[in-house]
Amino acid sequence: MTLTSAPRLESDRLALRGPEMRDFDAFADFHADPVRAPGFGPVYRRDESWRWFATNIGHWHIHGYGYFIIADKATDVAMGLSGIWNPDGWPEPELGWVVFAGHEGKGIAFEAATRARKWAYEDLDLKTLTSNIYGSNTRSIALAQRLGATYERTYDNVYMGEDQLWRHPAPEALT
């Protein structure tokens, strides 16, 4: 059972859906990984992951958007997160993504982020999106570029410190 009012979005291989309790273990494992978690946020203990997971659920209720679970369309197994994030102190709505261990290198983040961005522009009527990326996160920078985003500036992210802001093409530039 979904914990939010998130719609179910689909792409060729993926379903983007609201978070469910059965997704928490995969998320907590990701956020406990000292190699994989940085760039999305700090390495978290399980109780801290619980708070972030609950924050995402609240984010959906406050904004009407948040991070979807990226799930395999055939099996519904959680493979990562993608969606629109805009907590207090954020410069503006951000298109974000992360893929859990074992699911990298398959184009999942690109496919999910492309679908989430389309939803944000068409259904939420957002006019612009950014992606906030650590300068050392070369894989996310490459994905942002593949999505057509361009580097705009470096800024002090209130939660993560120095971050790069990458600007996505406006909706009319994608049609």
From TrEMBL:
The keyword Transferase applies. Residues 14-171 form the N-acetyltransferase domain. Keywords: Transferase. Signal peptide: none annotated. GO terms for molecular function: acyltransferase activity, transferring groups other than amino-acyl groups. Pfam families: Acetyltransf_3. The keyword Iron does not apply. InterPro entries: Acyl_CoA_acyltransferase, GNAT_dom, N-acetyltransferase. This is Protein N-acetyltransferase, RimJ/RimL family. The lineage of its organism: Bacteria, Pseudomonadati, Pseudomonadota, Alphaproteobacteria, Rhodobacterales.
